[in-house]
Amino acid sequence: MQITADHVIKFIETITMRVKEQRDYLTQLDSAIGDADHGVNLDRGFTTVVTKLPSVADKDIGTILKTVGTTLVSTVGGASGPLYGTAFLRAGMASADRFELSVDDLTVVVEAALEGIQARGKSTRGEKTMIDAIGPAVDALKAAHAAGDDLLTSLRKAVAACQAGMEATIPMLATKGRASYLGERSIGHQDPGATSAFLMAQALLEVLEASQ
Amino acid sequence: MKKLINAPEQVVKEALAGMADAHADLLTVHYDPDFIVRADAPIANKVGLVSGGGSGHEPMHGGFVGKGMLDAACPGAVFTSPVPDQMLAATKAVSAGKGVLHIVKNYTGDVMNFEMAAELAAAEGIEVASVVTNDDVAVKDSLYTAGRRGVGVTVLMEKIVGGAAEAGADLAEVKRLAEKVNAHGRSMGMALTSCVVPHAGKPTFDLPDDEMEIGIGIHGEPGRTRVKVGHAADIAAMLAAPILEDLPFKQGDHVLAFVNGMGGTPLIELYLMYNELNKILAGQGITISRRLIGSYITSLEMAGCSFTLLKLDDELTKFWDAPVLTPALRWGY
Fold it and tell me: Is B219 a catalytic residue?
């Protein structure tokens, strides 16, 4: 099985639906340790993104992802706009002119996205951010692929690692982003960025499982 | 939630429309991307000053656009950083070939979005310098955080640097002065009640009737401690002490004292708090030689206040006193 451009369009549409459903939950997580806007901002961004999808529906995966990235940068604001925007832009650059991605290609694409987030946010693992969910997911994807797992099996393992990473942010002390201002009081709360990252990973798996 | 709004998602645009009409002599509002710009921009032979941030802190920043202060301001959604498209468009609109200074408050989102905008502006051949304000002493250990938040000093910086830019200072000079203001200023705030973000519809945090949050952020971020509400004199001491010891301010210093309302506190209480601050400073041999009292950097309807002290010298005093004509601050013109 390969990831097609059509899967990528459905992936973005699914993220949009899940973000809309989980909007209040994400905002509630953010009000505990941030500024109570994460769900609202992502919802605004992806709602705009889906209006752009018809214009790139017949284009390569790189063009689709770059369009998602620039639209998120232009509409989300906050920290998540530049971070997710940069992630999709880098993923788009890593999949330029491609209409299909193998599991091998996917590891390259998600790694590029992760590197983009780390560079833009000047952040690393263990600081209670989205990187704590995405990093383990990328590791798990690569490990599964190296062990010879197929695309779906690898992705299931990646999503499980993403969820574990998201949950592991609960006891973490935030040292980056607005939650860091809370110091010790950030402990005991799940990071909203790690949560939205998990929603996105889950959306990709959902689309691929449904098209099987 | 009780608010004078039509729909949460229309709040920023409708407020901008009101501002555009009310202050058409001073400023113009551009939409999509949204930014507020001096009516006479770009000003020949002048460094452009651009700031911006989430909405909900009015009059900051849009209320400071005009002669002797900002050339443009970029309003984001409520409590959300604006996006690079806005800052790029504003930067281009005020660029007169002498460079543009971005005044950025130290919040992760603001810093990243302004950084992207500066990269885009540089790619279009505009020289951009940036200064980040980080004056909030409530954030204790900057090594393990995103750093101190930018709060009250931002208002003072926009005024002082605006005066210098209006007088013809070049970009390097304007940036140096901005960094000096930041280095000489410290702030601390407190809240009696929470704010309500329009699209959230409920208070950002729960604060029992008899408690207050010391060290509150301007987005309702929790501060250092939560304690029972005491007398104004005690609250003033709790705000002033960490400010004074941080710079530190010393006997013989001349300062600008800025007592700021968070949005829901009446002026009578701000003057009362100013009186308390005055007593504290007098007791330490510190002279208030300039002052600003009122709600200038707010957090929607939050009740509470913040203190900002800026250590003055002749240069800072001169540009603070320089004429200014904006919706929110005006003297000398």
Answer: yes
Which residues contact residue A83 at a Cβ distance below 8 angstroms, ignoring those fewer than 6 apart? A117, A120, A121, A130, A193, B112
Report pLDDT for A201: 98
Active site annotation includes B199: no
- CB-CB under 8 Å, B54 with A74: no
Which CATH superfamily groups domain B185-313?
Dihydroxyacetone kinase; domain 2 (3.30.1180.20)
Across the interface, of A31, A80, A175, the residue whose CB is closest to B144 is A175
Domains of chain A plus CATH, in order, are 3-210 (1.25.40.340)
Q: What residues in B contact A124, CB-CB < 8 Å?
A: none
E-assigned strands of B107-165?
128-133
pLDDT of residue B309 exceeding 90, the answer is: yes
The answer to whether residue B225 neighbours chain A at the CB level (below 8 Å) is: no
Please tell me the pTM assigned to this model: 0.89
Q: Is residue B143's pLDDT more than 70? A: no
Closest CA to B173 of B115, B129, B132, B133: B129
For residue B66, which amino acid is it? G
Q: What was the ipTM of the complex prediction?
A: 0.80
Superfamily of domain covering B8-184+320-331: Dihydroxyacetone kinase; domain 1 (3.40.50.10440)
pLDDT of A36 reads 79
